Amino acid sequence: MAGAAAALALLLWPPGATAAYPNPGLVTGDIGIHDPSMIRTDSGYALYGSNNLLDARTSPDRTAFSNAGSAFTGPQSWWSRYSPEQSPWAPDISYHNGTYWMYYAVSSFGSNTSAIGLATSDTGLPGSFTDQGIVHSTSSDSDYNAIDPSLLVDDDGTWWLAFGSWWSGIKMIQLDPATGKQHPDHTEVHSLASAEGGIEGPALIKHGDHYYLFNSYGTCCAGTDSTYHIKVGRSTSPTGPYADADGRSLLAGGGTFVLESHGRFIGPGGQSVLSDTDGDLLVYHYYDGEDNGAPKLGVNLLDWSSGWPVAY
To answer: Taking the complete model, does pTM exceed 0.90, yes or no?
Structure first.
């Protein structure tokens, strides 16, 4: 990770201030990936990302990564209704009740005819997932988009799924813990955040007494022309309202900066958060300005001493 001097400088920032950002921590090997989500398993770390039946990487130490194929061994029969390319996106993996749960999106670029699927596994390893079908879907008539899922299991056992992009912004639904699907008795779609110029890729976690909603803003997937950046808001309730460090609502364009382009590290986003033995990690992709804009894995620890997440 970044050196001690850089970390100290970061901790002196007021929340939301613009200053030099830390470089990604050291990762090696097969680190080309989009929209990464990482989990610690009994046999090391498993990392999943967009495309190619959900790209998979494994690592024994969270530093050296190897290409491990994909989460799935083949396309699922229902994918073609939402993606002619049958290329799933933006997985979110977590472990609950003895099972690895992977939520993911099926869509086409620029379309809101989309669906969020669920797959489960006993090991969390590539090729071991069994698809459980559709969790939530949207059509061309919808004013929001069912992509980029992020699961939060609350302290009281309630399951929430944040998701969405562009259109009217980031949404949330309640899930049934027994199935991992949308709760039949709680069907409200909650609005969490919106922004002009693009918002997507939520990552929702609880830290202390607050719920923190990280979002990717701007444009993804354009190499060195990407404008992705990560901002965050917090709330005392999972359903909001979420506000930034200056009190601005995330429904009105607010958001405290966590990471944005700096030096060769362009368009950071597609983020997730992993709680590991040494702290919480921000896991994301960026485009390498010194390697023809290749997408690569970024990992930084988060410091919470200010009450807001600061990457270091």
So the answer is: yes
Domains of the chain: 4-311 (2.115.10.20)
Residues 6+ apart with CB under 8 A from 269: 201, 216, 217, 218, 220, 226, 228, 229, 230, 284, 285, 286
Show which residues are catalytic: 35, 200
Do the beta carbons of residue 281 and residue 299 sit within 8 Å?
A: yes
Buried b vs exposed e over 7-37: b needs ≥16 C-beta within 10 Å? beebeeeebbeeeebbbbbebeebbbbbbbb
Residue 19: predicted pLDDT = 55
**Helix or strand run (H / E) with residue 5:** helix 4-11
Given a cut of 80, is residue 10 above it in pLDDT? no
**From CA 90, how far away is CA 202, in angstroms rounded?**
10
Give the contacts of 77 (CB within 8 A, at least 6 positions apart): none
Maximum distance among all alpha carbons in the chain? Answer: 52
pLDDT at 5 exceeding the cut of 70 = no
**What tokens does 153 get?**
């299991």
38 has which bridge partners? 47
8 in helix, strand or coil?
Answer: helix
Residue type, 174: Q
Chain position carrying tokens 């949207």: 138
- At 6 the pLDDT is 39
Per residue in 39-73, pLDDT (tens digit) is 999 999 999 999 999 999 999 999 999 999 999 99
Distance CA 185, CA 171 (A): 18
